[in-house]
Amino acid sequence: MGVTMTPMRILVSGFEPFGGDVANASGDAVEQLGATWDDPAVDLHVVTLPVSFDRAPTALAAAIAATRPDAVICVGEAGGRTAVTPERWAVNERSARIPDNDGAQPSGPIDDLAPSLASRIDVDGIVEAMRAAGIEAQPSQDAGRYVCNAVFRAALTGFDGPAGFIHVPALRATGEALVGAETDGAEPRPADRGGVAGVSALPELVTALRAAVEVVSRSRA
């Protein structure tokens, strides 16, 4: 008789709107991913985090404690990017260009650990899978210094398993994003990928995140 594998439990987080904006592409995409998930090999859980330097890491820790995941994927938006960009590094620094949703603008180190912590998910494999699904994607070396990076750092320091962060373009159903430049940094715009255009619609973000979850789910021995 064959052995039935227990589904891999994966927690995916997105963010609420911030800075007076009406939407956050990361939260919208993660919510839709959870609502449409249909792969029995993965027990998918999703959570929307506050855009708060203080409360977001705490909310992530609570979600981890509640779901006891095998892997954690955090998602945020980057206003100037047109590709989906899995992040390689979480840096030990906070620098808020605008106040968070609690009105805080902290600066300085996050913790007493290394200056940079490496992602524990397969960044290159995820980029390859997203591109195979027709989504413009490229690895990023800089997650910024805003709440996204702080949550990325919290995932790596507060959870022992596979954990990483993915930035998505700050798409809006109508109009332009008011915020999101906090994580643009010096990241390049997407290179020519043989006619694959930049990401322009929420369903593409959901497709990209689905590809990421599938790659992470295959990482279990």
Task: Describe the protein's topology.
Elements lengths: L7 E8 L9 H12 L5 E8 L5 H13 L3 E8 L6 E2 L2 E3 L2 E2 L11 E2 L7 E3 L4 H10 L14 H12 L4 E7 L32 H16 L4
What is the general shape?
globular
| Total of DSSP H or I helical runs spanning 4+ residues | 5
The portion of residues forming beta strands comes to 15-25%
**Computed CA radius of gyration, to the nearest angstrom:** 16 Å
Q: Report the mean per-residue pLDDT as an integer.
A: 91
Give me the side-by-side strand order of the main sheet: 2-1-3-9-4
The structure class reads: alpha/beta
Order of helices and strands: EHEHEEEEEEHHEH
- How much helical structure, as a percent, in the residues? 25-40%
| CATH class (first level) name | Alpha Beta
Q: Which architecture would the CATH scheme give at its second level?
A: 3-Layer(aba) Sandwich
CATH topology: Aminopeptidase
The total strand number stands at 9
The profile of the biggest β sheet is:
5 strands, mixed
Structure commentary:
InterPro entries: Peptidase_C15, Peptidase_C15-like, Peptidase_C15-like_sf. This is Pyrrolidone-carboxylate peptidase. Keywords: Cytoplasm, Hydrolase, Protease, Thiol protease. It is a single chain. A 5-stranded mixed beta sheet has the order 2-1-3-9-4, sandwiched between helices. Strands 5-8 form a two-stranded antiparallel sheet. By secondary structure, the protein is of the alpha/beta class. The longest helix is centred in the C-terminal third of the chain and has 16 residues, at about 200-215. The chain has one domain (about 10-215): Aminopeptidase (3-Layer(aba) Sandwich), CATH 3.40.630. Strand 1 (about 10-15), helix 1 (about 25-35) and strand 2 (about 40-50) form a beta-alpha-beta unit. Residues about 185-195 have low confidence and may be disordered. Helix 1 packs across helix 5 (about 200-215) and helix 2 (about 55-65) packs parallel to helix 4. It has 5 helices and 9 strands, in the order βαβαββββββααβα.
